[in-house]
């Protein structure tokens, strides 16, 4: 699962026993060599889908980590791109990455649950971050995204179809979440990282409540499951309320 440049088991344990912020500060130098980073094919497919509907003026990468989503935004935004994350370590790595020519890029350290922006963005993207939010935090998170988008702006993120119950992947994720719950029951501060709390049906409902009109786009590059449903979808939520 990890390349030779990735973290060792001991480093992962130390990370998991820290807070989310401190854990990602520690992981940051090696994050891009872990499976926690969104795979390039998903990033590329998202950029391709956005190019068909863009261009956009300004973009925000929510929970940007080392900036992979910023690279997507730089392909579809004309005036400027911002990455926001609460890990100083991840932002430090993001600032050091070499990027191709494009719109100006800025970096802001902030909590996604308290974004320090007005309605100045036309596009917000996020990749692989929602497992760090408990279900009760999602409505406030979506309200924050709504507040920083201009009317008609879009909030976009990919969603991979969940593994089938009984499969090896399903059992692995179920076991991971169980271990995290035990860890958080016996140690503080908590490390919030769950794989099975962010469900598509709940997500659509909460986005609608927050004032978005929601569409699901199939990312056809990844094919379909046996039942005909897409393996990967793009959630496209348009701000419809002033």
TrEMBL record:
<dbReference type="GO" id="GO:0008168">
    <property type="term" value="F:methyltransferase activity"/>
</dbReference>
<keyword id="KW-0808">Transferase</keyword>
<protein>
    <submittedName>
        <fullName>SAM-dependent methyltransferase</fullName>
    </submittedName>
</protein>
<dbReference type="InterPro" id="IPR029063">
    <property type="entry name" value="SAM-dependent_MTases_sf"/>
</dbReference>
<keyword id="KW-0489">Methyltransferase</keyword>
<dbReference type="Pfam" id="PF13649">
    <property type="entry name" value="Methyltransf_25"/>
</dbReference>
<dbReference type="GO" id="GO:0032259">
    <property type="term" value="P:methylation"/>
</dbReference>
<feature type="domain" description="Methyltransferase">
    <location>
        <begin position="60"/>
        <end position="153"/>
    </location>
</feature>
<dbReference type="InterPro" id="IPR041698">
    <property type="entry name" value="Methyltransf_25"/>
</dbReference>
